[in-house]
Amino acid sequence: MTEGNQHIGYYHFVVEPFHEDFTGHISWNLLGIRLLQCASKHAAAYGFGSVMAEQEACIWVLSRLTIEMNRRPATHQDYCIETWVDSIYRQFTNRYYRIVGADGTVYGTASSIWALIGRESRRPISLEKLQQEHPTMSLIEVHRPEVHIPEPARIKGHASEPVRSFTAHYSDIDINGHVNSIRYIDHILDLFSFEKLGEQEVRRIDMTYSSEAFCHQKLDLYLTQEEAEDNYVIEIKRSDTPICKARVEFAAS
Amino acid sequence: MTEGNQHIGYYHFVVEPFHEDFTGHISWNLLGIRLLQCASKHAAAYGFGSVMAEQEACIWVLSRLTIEMNRRPATHQDYCIETWVDSIYRQFTNRYYRIVGADGTVYGTASSIWALIGRESRRPISLEKLQQEHPTMSLIEVHRPEVHIPEPARIKGHASEPVRSFTAHYSDIDINGHVNSIRYIDHILDLFSFEKLGEQEVRRIDMTYSSEAFCHQKLDLYLTQEEAEDNYVIEIKRSDTPICKARVEFAAS
Q1: Fewer Cβ atoms within 10 A, N terminus or C terminus of chain A?
Q2: B149 with B96: CB under 8 angstroms?
């Protein structure tokens, strides 16, 4: 059974007070951070971690992230993030996640695409080649056809005028010196009203990352609504440079 | 010795990746959240926690917070937050903290003043009276004269024009429906440049909380510099209503 698969990482957490949002469930920020932490730990366990990345002067970069939640665990609830690598191709890995409660509740699933890039060159590194050169590295592909995984959505939509702009500051910036991938999700959800976010659950978030943004840069948010559904497309740009694009899907109210 | 004092709470943590800021040390946000979590857990252990608060329909409110750090622990470093109640008077408690590394390094200390208020009435509740009515509640006062505790600073300074304004959104709001106490620290540190925060350590932050702010409210930040020192005073107001006041002290560069 998959529970015995040694190539799946299992990481246990509890939703701590002050890590929830106003609805009493784990904040999207902390949920996103937990996914990144698990990806990082699991990759490290296979020789691809931050230590290896530093030796090779390269860093993992998140290219796409899709999170689909049936519901988010509430304060004091336990959950386990399972993570595994589904495939490796050229400079990318497809990494999947399942968020499961102690009682077996499947809170949700997620998928991500990561690339390894040179810290200085910012250019992608071939994972296949790196594995050949460093036999201690291994990322074994795990296929779990019984687990529903959200495939990245095609994000379409264009707005001509920004609905909001913000300047990236200290609290947006992570250890790599750029705006943290998950912090964009905060800025995106901040576009919706307190009332809407209280009445309707966000069911799914798709993120596509294009370029890095840095401290003191002004970023513009463009919002459009998909036709006939309560789904939204948000583009974040620095002048004309696309930084990231998101799709937010609300559950039917 | 104090290590054996059963009325001190000891809570162990490690600085996890993605919980640091760009300097590679625990972010001020997460450090602040950890202090709140420890206060909450320790009070709960003495019958004053969130469960009791809900039965009594009251919540803890942070009135003052002072954090003084020699340095902040870096990624993967262990630390322990010790917390204890120094005194209880009328509707307030003085709660102190010490942040200590596994090797005995004293990273810093903190002090806070908390009040218990009615969830509906928003009026303070007498802690002394509550303890008399509920004998299962006990907050034993612990005096540790050997531990340096930062006394709250007098925060003086007035600026006439705001340097920045922001509107509170989803990511600012906590489970009580108001702007989270620690989130103000983010907004305050965001006033300083990436370069300054990279070159100089923030040594100490004093916060005084006056009023609650809610989602969609516009808040103005006023900044002044103390004479002759690299210390800053920040006031946050909603129109003319003071929300909180802070003092930020940088270490000599």
Answers
A1: N
A2: yes
Q: Do B18 and A197 touch (CB under 8 A)?
A: no
Amino acid type, A241 = T
- B113-143 core/surface letters (b: 16 or more CB in 10 A; e: else): bbbbbeeeeeebbebeebbeeeeebebeebe
User: Which token pair is A79?
Assistant: 């959950």
Lowest average pLDDT, out of A21-35, B178-192, B222-236, goes to: B222-236
pLDDT tens for residues A15-58?
Answer: 999 999 999 999 999 999 999 999 999 988 888 765 566 667 78
Tell me, rounded to whole angstroms, the distance of Cα A126 from its chain centroid.
Answer: 22
| 8 A C-beta contact, residue A220 and residue A237 | yes
Q: How far apart are CA B210 and CA A188, in angstroms?
A: 30
What residues does CATH 3.10.129.10 cover in chain B? 2-133, 164-250
- A75 and B20: CB-CB below 8 Å? no
- CATH of region A2-133, choose from 3.10.129.10, 1.10.540.10, 1.10.390.10, 3.40.50.2000: 3.10.129.10
Q: Which chain B residues are Cβ-neighbours of A33 within 8 angstroms?
A: 18-19
* C-alpha–C-alpha distance, residues B64 and B95, integer Å: 10
Which tens digit of pLDDT belongs to each residue from A136-176? 777 788 999 999 999 888 888 788 899 999 999 999 999 98
